[in-house]
Design brief:
There is one protein chain. This protein has 488 residues and is of the alpha+beta class. The protein is built from 18 helices and 18 strands. Among the domains are: 118 residues, Uridine Diphospho-n-acetylenolpyruvylglucosamine Reductase, domain 3 (2-Layer Sandwich), CATH 3.30.465; 106 residues, Alpha-Beta Plaits (2-Layer Sandwich), CATH 3.30.70.2190; 76 residues, Alpha-Beta Plaits (2-Layer Sandwich). The chain has a 7-stranded antiparallel sheet, with helices on both faces. Strands 5-6-10-8-9 form a 5-stranded antiparallel sheet. A 4-stranded mixed sheet has the order 1-2-4-3. The radius of gyration is 23 Å and the shape is globular. The protein binds flavin-adenine dinucleotide.
Length: 488
């Protein structure tokens, strides 16, 4: 259906088209619709315009033009985020990185790679396979999420327990700031003096600038890998096993837990051999030399038997190992068997408090009459209570929000935090004040203002409403939804 350009956008669309080519400036409703969502259940605002630039210079040009016209900029990678970060809170220009997916350089001796931000996570490790190297952060979304998005969210993943989260693997970044200037921060030289600006940028959720090139650390592929499924008849024993494994000095490459209903849902979907009647299962992966694997295997066998695991099964071959992982990585999709909509939390708790917080999630599920399935990174205490519901049920949204809030408060009460890896975005923005006092938040706003004094970059995200949200000039339907705390 032919559409005419709204007069208030005509000049902007023409200017952006001159900068990057008209076919890379999207403004028709049907082109904009897919940018209204990310992986969360939030329904925010449709962007006014989406641009798909191909280089740092084009991003700089786009940012200058849009900011001068008073439009906020929202960076977007794979759109798999779970906290609404890549979706405009109230209109603006979405800058997508889908034309910036190249590996620009690999240095196998230094074990580094320079990549564009739109590169899909797994594609980097596939590219570096000939050198027997890989990019260690492995979010479960790694087949669709980008290195730019992983950096912006400081993503984690099952193997981050041993190898560290994204911030430990980013060595340099080029970033376009809100005024269109280009900043390059490089920490490849060891022990650099001065402020850790790269540390500030990683995890900043697109609120400080748009990252256009990233140098990452590459990790050697392990010599050997062994994956176990430990099966438990009660949750407490499984949680105690997690704490004991780490306390005994074993740092598995990954230590994941599935509990309760989640196990059966995953099994029905993936047929990985998970027992349908278990109360909890642990997916334990160790890696290293033959001697290291032998030593860790003995210790894991001892601990699992001490905590009365019903069975400890080792994957016999690569096919079985992949099946076990397919269950874990496909867990979110598998849970759609129970209810069509989800909201996922990712609070973190000290490992020693896992049992009591998991117990609480069960009580919350009963109290709020929602399903909650826990499938999570147990080794680092990063819970992922998956709240499942059907939005057609009256009142369910309020109950799901209440459940989510109860769990976040409990995570803070036991000394944890409201997010381990999914970021704050807009979804958890107002809960930041549960964790930080007004002075802390003021300091964060000041820091943000050093990069972006007017709040052009991804406004209304990460830090509770303040000056940055006052600058939005295009608040439309979303403002209502936000005010109502709407998700769907
Ligand atoms: C099924 C599923 C499983 C998941 N599992 C995990 C998991 O195990 N661990 C985990 O950490 N997360 C997980 N996530 C969440 C999500 O995949 C991660 O947060 C991921 O890092 C987002 O990457 P993306 O490319 O999709 O970014 P997007 O969703 O597009 O954007 C996320 C944020 O990054 C910003 N951004 C994107 N690109 C840039 C850039 N170039 N410069 C500046 N800012 C930018 C956006 O503005 C936004 O704030 C999962 C999501 C799903 C749907």
């Amino acid at each position: 259906m032919p559409q005419t350009i709204a007069p208030e956008f005509a000049t902007l669309i023409a200017d952006l088209g001159r900068a990057i080519g008209p076919k890379y400036v999207l403004w028709r409703v049907e082109e904009l619709m897919m940018y209204e969502f990310d992986g969360s259940a939030l329904d925010l605002a449709r962007p006014d315009i989406v641009v798909v630039p191909a280089s740092t210079a084009e991003i700089a040009a786009v940012v200058k033009i849009a900011a001068a016209a008073g439009f906020p900029i929202v960076p977007r990678g794979g759109g798999t985020g779970l906290s609404g970060g890549s979706v405009p809170a109230a209109g603006g220009v979405v800058v997508a990185t889908s034309r910036m997916q190249k590996v620009l350089h690999v240095d196998p001796v230094a074990r580094t790679a320079i990549v564009q931000p739109g590169l899909i996570n797994t594609e980097l490790s596939e590219y570096t396979l000939p050198w027997n190297l890989h990019f260690a952060p492995d979010p479960s979304s790694q087949k669709a999420s980008t290195i730019g998005g992983n950096s912006a969210e400081n993503a984690g993943g099952p193997h981050c327990l041993k190898y560290g989260i994204t911030t430990n693997h980013v060595l340099a970044a080029t970033m376009v700031l809100a005024d269109g200037s280009i900043l390059h921060i490089d920490t490849t030289a060891p022990d650099r003096p001065g402020y850790d600006l790269l540390g500030v940028i990683v995890g900043s959720e697109g609120t400080l600038g748009m990252v256009t090139e990233i140098t990452v650390r590459l990790t050697p592929n392990p010599e050997g890998v062994k994956t176990f499924l430990a099966i438990f008849d009660d949750l407490d024993s499984a949680s105690d096993t997690v704490s004991a494994i780490i306390a005994q000095g074993v740092i598995p490459a990954a230590l994941e837990m599935l509990e309760g209903q989640g196990i059966a849902l995953v099994e029905q979907s993936v047929h990985a051999g998970y027992p349908l009647d278990a109360q909890a299962v642990l997916l334990i992966e160790i890696d290293g030399t033959d001697e290291e694997i032998e030593d860790q295997t003995a210790r894991i066998e001892y601990i699992c038997s001490h905590f009365e695991a019903r069975e400890l099964r080792a994957a016999k071959d690569e096919e079985q190992r992949k099946k076990l992982w397919a269950g874990r990585k496909g867990a979110l999709a598998a849970c759609a068997r129970l209810a069509p909509h989800y909201h996922i939390q990712d609070g973190v708790v000290p490992r020693s408090r896992l049992t009591e917080v998991l117990q609480l999630t069960r009580e919350v599920a009963k109290r709020q009459r929602v399903h909650i399935v826990n499938i999570f990174h147990a080794g680092d205490g990063n819970l992922h209570p998956l709240i499942l519901f059907d939005i057609r049920e009256p009142g369910i949204i309020d109950r799901a929000i209440a459940a989510s809030e109860e769990i976040m408060r409990e995570c803070i009460r036991v000394g944890g935090s409201i997010s381990g890896e999914h970021g704050i975005g807009i979804e958890k923005r107002d809960y930041m004040s549960l964790l930080f006092n007004e002075d802390d938040l003021w300091a964060m706003r000041q820091m943000r203002a050093c990069f972006d004094a007017v709040g052009v970059m991804n406004p209304c995200k990460l830090i509770p409403t303040g000056a940055s949200c006052g600058d939005i000039k295009h608040a439309r339907g979303a403002a209502k939804a936000l005010a109502a705390g709407a998700w769907i």
